[in-house]
Every structure is written in C-alpha cells, then in structure tokens.
Specification:
This protein is mainly alpha-helical. The chain is built from 17 helices and five strands. A hairpin with a 2-residue loop joins strand 2 and strand 3. This is Helix-turn-helix domain-containing protein.
C-alpha cells in the first residue's frame, strides 16, 4: 500500500533532499540504459524490432526518466507528492508509428520492466529511510501514471483507427455498389486495384468469394445490431463489410471455401429493418462483387411483387419480377438460362412447354393441342425440368417459365415457337 498523504498535502515520506535529486539527475542516463538492457533481456522480440522502433522506445524511456526526476524535484519544493503531470509527454514525443507497431500488451510489458528497474536502482540513492520511502512511493505512483498515459495513447489511437477504418469501409462498399466506371480517364483496372488495396487494409481477403446483401437498415439500435453481425461473422470465420447509403443497408459477406453460410445470412438479416432483404449471387472475388450488388439492388424494388418471398430472398429467385420491372439483365438471364437450353435440346420441347403453359397447365388439354399422347407431354416436361431446374407443374416455377417464354418472344418479335 502507498504511504498515506495527509490532507494538508504534507507527507512524512514525500521530501527528497537537493543532494539526492542531484544523484537522480546524474543517474538518469544510466537508468535509461539499464531499462533498455532489461527490455532486450526479458523480451527477445524487443531485439528484433527495427532500429527506428528501438530508437522510439529509447526516446520514450529517456523522456520518462527525465520526467520522473523533474517530478521528484517539484515535490521536493512543494512539499507534497502530487499527481505527475508530465507522463503523457513521454508518449507524445514518441514516433507516431510506435503505437501502431507495438501492441498495448507489449507496451505494458515494457512499462513493467522499466518500473522494476526504477524500484531496484533508485532506492539505494536515498540518503536515509525517509527518502527511500519517498523514492519507492514515487516509483509506484509514477509507474501507475505512465501505465495510464500509455492506455490513453492506445485508446486515442484505437479511436482514430476506428474512424479511419469506418471511412475506408464506406469507400469499399460504395465502390462495390457503383462498380467500375471510367471517370476522369481512370480505368476499370485502377478501380479494381484501389478496391483491393482498401479492402486489404481492412483485413479483407479480396480473393475470397462473397455475396452482397441489401435492404433497409433497422430504425433503432442498428449500430449494436451491426456490431453483433460482425461478431457472428468473425466467429464463423467470415469477413463482413457494412455500409449505410441513405435508406439502404449494404452488407458484403465473405464465403470461405467449404463454409455453409445459410445460418450466417440469417444472422445478417437481423441488422435489417422491415421490408425485403435481397441476397445477390455469389461473386468469385471482391472485384467481381459489383455484379452481385447490381443484382441485389435490382431485386429490392421488384421484391414486393412477390409477397410470399422468403426473407432473405435470392436475387436470382426474383428474375421474373425483375424482368417485369424493366431489368434487362434479368430479361436476358431468363432467355439464356431457361428458354435457350430448352430450344437447343430440340424435340419439340419448347413448343410443348409453351402449349402446356397456354393451356393453364392442363396436361390433357396440352396433349390435345399437340395431337400427342399425355405420356409424351409428361416425358417432355420432365426433360424441361432436367434442363432448367424448374418444374412446369409447380405454380411458382410455371410462372418463371411463362415470363421466360414471354421474354424470348419479345426478343424474337412476338412469334411463339409453335407457330400458333
């Protein structure tokens, strides 16, 4: 326990004679050197630091020793051992890179070693027992204040880093949403390089696959929800970037190989408010994520046309609604992904599909229209399912197939394939 200081500021152990102070001043250089030697001896990583970082630690240590001597001198004049006011200066003069390259744990270890060296080498300089107690008390209080000053520096650095990370995160999300564009002579290549550089600075692996999730942000406490999303993603080994753009919340969620992300996307949904949440298709890497974002944003206004859609809903599951809303990408994807494979297979498959849809999905009526046996219709519809992954007998799949056929007719000038 530290010696008690009386209410009037006087302490029986607080005074140090001018002669002892002079000894402290003369020993300051050796004391700083002893601290550095002990640091290198106790922590092998200290010796592996660059010369600039070691010089920074040396500067902080020497300033701290000088501050301690000055502080003890002031208490000798004032007659009380008040709170040291110079400790923060030891870190303020340090190179800015020092707090970024040394962790708080490493800094605390170095402060602990310096305090131990002080405790070992300063008390023998005292002229009597009272001065020895004063020096011991001074070392304890000064070490405590140095630790507080270090924590303050790292807290400030963390706040600055957090604000910087938030700005970079917003830039990355915005770049993904906008996609590569030629602006003032810049090229898609420079856009990709800038995106990868910024994302890498945030610890994101730009080569990992990902999805883009969009929707409306939660109106209340969404910051706490976003923090929880980040924690859940970190626990599952994923990376997440979040951006709020007006009334839209955009989340980039990585999908490391072999990871099932269904549950994790469900966790992400909790950060969204009311309304649809749309998940873009899987992008192979970060530079390709703008396509996933484009599809997700295209699905957002189209989602209300499908009231029974799951939440979240995949953008690819809204292709008919997106096509009806004027999305040309969805229009072409329906044609190339649904109609063209069926047409390429031949065998009257496309004509059978069109006739089946036109007959109200009535198999017997379709067979009569085509003058074939119902089993032939069944066989052809199974082939359509194999080619497209859509079952014509399912109401939702039938709707997708119908819109795809209509899109193909529009591209062909309105002529159905069966000529009817």
């Amino acid at each position: 326990m530290l010696p008690r200081v009386t209410d009037d500021g006087a302490s029986t152990s607080s005074r140090v004679s001018p002669a002892t102070l002079r000894k402290l001043e003369l020993a300051a250089g050796d004391l700083a050197g002893a601290c550095l030697t002990a640091m290198a001896r106790c922590h092998p990583w200290f010796a592996r630091l660059s010369a600039d970082l070691r010089a920074g630690v040396q500067l902080v240590t020497q300033t701290g020793v000088a501050n301690f001597v000055a502080w003890m001198g002031k208490q000798g004049v004032a007659g009380s051992l008040g709170a040291p006011r110079l400790t923060a200066e030891a870190f303020r003069i340090a190179p800015r890179d020092l707090a970024r390259r040394l962790t708080l744990s490493q800094t605390v270890d170095l402060v602990r070693i310096a305090t131990e060296v002080f405790e070992e080498q300063l008390p023998p300089l005292a002229a009597d027992e009272a001065e020895r107690r004063a020096l011991v008390e001074g070392v304890l209080r000064f070490g405590r204040e140095i630790a507080f000053a270090a924590a303050t520096v790292y807290a400030g650095e963390a706040e600055s880093r957090g604000a910087w990370d938030a700005r970079v995160e917003a830039l990355v999300v915005d770049a993904v949403v906008r996609g590569p564009r030629v602006v003032s002579g810049s090229t898609a290549r420079s856009w990709s390089d800038g995106l990868v550089s910024r994302a890498s600075a945030l610890g994101w692996d730009p080569t990992e696959p990902l999805r883009v999730v969009v929707g409306s942000p939660a109106p209340e406490a969404h910051e706490a929800l976003l923090s929880e999303v980040r924690r859940e993603a970190d626990r599952s080994g994923q990376s997440v970037l979040v951006g709020v753009q007006g009334n839209r919340l955009v989340v980039l969620l990585s999908e490391p190989p072999g990871l099932d992300t269904g549950g994790d996307i469900g966790t992400v949904v909790e950060a969204f408010g009311e309304g649809p949440v749309v998940v873009g298709p899987r992008a192979a890497d970060l530079p390709g994520a703008h396509a996933s974002a484009r599809d997700a944003f295209a699905g957002l206004p189209a989602a209300p046309a499908r009231p029974g859609a799951p939440r979240p809903v995949a953008a690819d599951d809204l292709l008919p609604e997106r096509a009806l809303a004027g999305d040309q990408v969805a229009h072409r994807r329906l044609v190339t992904g649904v109609v063209e494979p069926v047409a390429a297979a031949g065998g009257e498959l496309l004509a059978t599909l069109e006739a089946f849809l036109e007959s109200g999905s009535a198999l017997e009526a379709c067979a009569r229209t085509l003058y074939v046996h119902p089993n032939t219709v069944r066989y052809r519809l199974r082939r359509v399912s194999e080619l497209t992954g859509l079952r014509p007998t399912d109401p939702r799949d039938a709707f997708v197939l119908r819109i795809a056929v209509l899109a193909a007719r529009l591209d062909a000038g309105g002529e159905p394939s069966n000529g009817s």
